[in-house]
Write a structure and sequence with these properties.
- The structure is a single chain.
- With 443 residues, the chain is of the alpha/beta class.
- It has three domains: 166 residues, Immunoglobulins (Immunoglobulin-like), CATH 2.60.40.10; 230 residues, von Willebrand factor, type A domain (Rossmann fold); 32 residues, no CATH class.
- It contains twelve helices and 21 strands.
- The strands form six sheets. It has a six-stranded mixed β-sheet with strand order 18-17-14-19-20-21, sandwiched between helices. Strands 1-10-9-5-6 form a five-stranded antiparallel β-sheet.
- Strand 17 and strand 18 form a beta hairpin.
- Helix 6 runs parallel beside helix 12 and helix 10 crosses helix 11.
- The longest helix is centred in the last third of the chain and has 26 residues.
- It is elongated.
- The protein starts with a helix and ends with a helix.
- About 4% of the residues have low confidence.
Length: 443
């Protein structure tokens, strides 16, 4: 009986009907002739209410289940599917309220739908998580009403379901197709023709215009009576490390995601691309000390190791120690490697403080410093200024944007590769840079 009353909810029609009846009974004091009509309507209302209760509680009602993915992809739209079945012999109006994880702080999520008698239906909605970690779903609440629609019966399903939110693995396939197709060149990378000059021999082939004359095989040319050249494979299995700064400069949020999470998502994708390109992929992060180390290898389980490491990467956003990073790289990396350093510099002074360590790292490794454009400043500069204060704001914003370009020039002056990118284009620009380095044979 307790659960019976607990699952009854009064609809708007109920309160409207009661209000009308109360109003009629009040009028009956003034116009006694209305009393009979009011009493008849009251009995009709009570009868409909009893019928409504019987219709909703006599049968099994609605069954539902929430179908969750094995894991969520951070920063992407993840589909959540709800399967409904109507066991009633009438069409039911349903209000669906899913208790979303506390990270969303959403208290007004509901879906209204109709379900034909003895019918099945699937409803899909999307969630875009913005924080890595565990996401707990509460009850799936359904409020079903009959065609009378005076009351609703509540059904509850799927309590305490947990789904981990991993770095954006949904981007892997998307960018993998781009990295191995000509579409990548639409994003700004120019195709560079390069012949390998390593000692790894591949084959002897006919000479075509553009082949390096130094590779002509004179013995094969004499035997076949036509020019033949040796072809060599480009060097493979180069170590590619994603180096993630998890200090305070990476806390700045853009479109809900912090710069750190953008760097984590890009690191996952570039590691996958590097492995598919026959290189070794590795990872480490740093702030006060170097942590989350994954040695660059080409094992079958390497991607899973990198994914789990990125999922568990945590920080308190303290000041980063670049000197500690330089010492650790010097001690642990003996082979020349490609280091993709995800960090952020807002001013030239900030760069100059760390420049000696970056130059020292770049002596033995190919260093690419990746930092971010402030897209909010870009929006501010595009607005029209209407008063002195707005002119002042716009001028300061343009100064900071220009200073970012000076940072790029300063790095180039010292022979350090760099990428200045909006956060949302980080992944594609990093892939472009990696493919350009491979094409030019810089590593």
């Amino acid at each position: 009986m307790k659960h019976f009353f607990k699952n009854i909810y009064l609809n708007t029609h109920f309160f409207v009907s009661v209000s009308v009846l109360v109003f009629l009974f009040i009028l009956a004091y003034i116009f006694p002739g209305l009393l009979v009509i009011a009493q008849m309507l009251f009995f009709v209302f009570v009868s409909l209410l009893i019928i409504d209760v019987i219709l909703l509680f006599k049968q099994k009602g609605i069954t539902a289940s929430r179908i969750l993915p094995e894991k969520l992809s951070n920063g992407d739209d993840n589909p959540i599917e709800i399967s409904l079945k109507n066991n009633y012999n009438f069409t039911s109006s349903i209000k669906l309220i899913d208790e979303l994880p506390f990270q969303y702080q959403k208290r007004d999520f509901e879906i209204d739908t109709k379900l034909e008698k003895q019918a099945n239906k699937k409803i899909t909605y999307t969630l875009r998580p913005l924080e890595r970690g565990e996401y707990y779903f509460g009850h799936l609440n359904l409020y079903a009403c009959s065609p009378i629609c005076l009351i609703s019966r509540r059904f509850q399903f799927g309590k305490d379901a947990m789904v981990p939110n991993y770095p954006s693995f949904l981007q892997l396939k998307k960018y993998m197709l781009m990295a191995f197709s000509n579409k990548i060149f639409e994003y700004g990378l120019k195709k560079i023709r390069r012949i390998g000059h390593t000692m790894e021999f591949e084959q002897i082939k006919d000479y075509v215009q553009g082949d390096d004359l130094r590779n002509i095989n004179w013995k094969a040319t004499a035997k076949s009576n036509r020019l033949m050249v040796n072809q060599y494979q480009d060097e493979r299995s180069q170590p590619v490390y994603s180096v993630i700064d998890k200090g305070r400069v990476m806390k700045m949020p853009f479109e809900g995601l912090s710069l750190l999470d953008y760097a984590i998502n890009a690191s996952l994708v570039i590691s996958n691309v590097a492995l598919k390109k026959q290189d070794k992929a590795g990872l480490f992060s740093f702030s006060r000390k170097v942590e989350n180390r994954v040695v660059a290898e080409r094992r079958p389980s390497q991607m899973n190791t990198i994914l789990e490491t990125l999922y568990n990467l945590d920080t308190d956003f303290v000041e980063s120690d670049f000197s500690r990073l330089y010492i650790d790289i010097k001690r642990s990396l003996n082979q020349r490697s490609l280091l993709l350093l995800y960090t952020n510099f807002e001013t030239l002074d900030a760069l100059h403080r760390q420049l000696p360590y970056l130059k020292a790292i770049a002596k033995n490794h190919l260093l690419v410093v990746i930092f971010f454009e402030n897209t909010e400043l870009q929006k501010l500069t595009r607005k029209s200024a209407t008063n002195t204060f707005e002119i002042f704001e716009k001028t300061i914003a343009e100064k900071f944007i220009y200073e970012k370009k000076l940072i790029v020039n300063e790095l180039q002056k010292h022979g350090i590769q760099s990428i200045l990118t909006p956060p949302e284009h980080l992944t594609i620009n990093t892939i472009n840079k990696y493919l350009e380095i491979k094409a030019r044979g810089l590593l």
